[in-house]
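Archive record
______________

***
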Amino acid sequence: MPVQVPTIDDEIAYILEKWIQNSAQLITGTIGQNVVWNLAQFIKQNPENYQKATVVASSSNYTTNNNQCIVIFTNNASGTLNWVDNRWNKYYFVNATNNIRAFSNGKFYWDINGVAKITIPARTSLYIAKGDDDYWYEVTASGSGGTSTGSSLRYVVGETDGPVEGQSTWQHDSLRGLGGIDDRYLFTMDNVPMMSYGTAKNFDFNSTDGIIDITPNVWVGGSGLDLPLMQTAN
């Protein structure tokens, strides 16, 4: 088995120390094998998913390692997420659960609006990359459980997964843990902003259970309820 070096920089150092001594006729078959074999290993590592995606089924707190690039959380995991720098300077995180996944160890990323985010909402895929300023930035994000309009999800009254026409309350797991840093959460109903808290209160929102209550009003068939994909937890 050839001697394996841990990083490409170590491979370069090995070449400079051993391979460059050719003029002194110090190269052996073992040295040549080590150099070529390690180069082959690094080439194999180039694809982002060469080690396959990591599937995390537990609800415990989780920290990545520098060989991971794609991490998928399943089974309603509700623990925290901490990530370390990896060889690609990018991560794909998939929160395939009904709960938010909060970041730990001071981790955050900047979204496309320049807002620091500290969670991944339920049923959301997130792609972040490290900038040359050493901050992490959102490259793209997507959610499910409704129709994606790019920056928001739309639920239509009377359609699958949407509020039921004629009723006053609606519960959906994608609403759990959503909120703003000032304890207000902005929804849009038929393109008209509605604030769940404050003086302009139009309805009650239970972030813990994911319930919207518009009593004494009722949901009107065909109306569209929009909510941003990326929101921090209360």
Observations:
- Residues 180-185, 230-234 have pLDDT under 50 and may be disordered.
